[in-house]
Specification:
The protein has helices at residues 2-13, 63-68, 82-91, 102-106; strands at 16-17, 26-28, 35-37, 44-45, 74-75, 78-79. It has 112 residues and is α+β, with helices and mostly antiparallel strands. The chain has one domain (2-80): Transferase(Phosphotransferase) domain 1 (Transferase(Phosphotransferase), domain 1). The chain is elongated, with a radius of gyration of 17 Å. It catalyses: L-threonyl-[protein] + ATP = O-phospho-L-threonyl-[protein] + ADP + H(+); L-seryl-[protein] + ATP = O-phospho-L-seryl-[protein] + ADP + H(+). Pfam families: Pkinase.
């Protein structure tokens, strides 16, 4: 963890925000246990103002992202459609009973 913090501080000192820190983006040496932070594809320049779109892996998004603003996802091909955002929001409902079943998801307009 300390090595990861060091890597993130180094990025910050260079004006870079990684935006997708997760185990899959860490390379760990089996011999020395040194880590390297990989995959800056979602990265951005560090700024003081709020970021207007989500970048990274939704599974690692902070909860406040979902509470304080509409979910806006950017892909390599532009913004995700409204239907896709609606399905994601539905799947992430706080109450399990409000979430869609597999049948609901399968019949969702975004998939057709």
């Amino acid at each position: 963890m300390l090595q990861l913090i060091s890597a993130l501080r180094h990025c910050e000192s260079r004006g870079v925000l990684h935006r997708d820190v997760k185990p899959e983006n860490l390379l760990i040496s089996t011999e020395s246990h040194d880590i390297k932070l990989l995959d800056f594809g979602c990265g951005d320049l560090l700024k003081d103002s709020a970021y207007k779109y989500f970048a990274g892996t939704l599974e690692y998004a902070p909860p406040e992202w979902f509470r304080q603003r509409p979910l806006s996802c950017r892909t390599g091909y532009g913004l995700v459609s409204g239907e896709c955002r609606q399905l994601i929001r539905w799947c992430l409902s706080a109450s399990a009973s409000d979430r869609p079943s597999l049948d609901d998801i399968e019949s969702h307009p975004w998939l057709h």
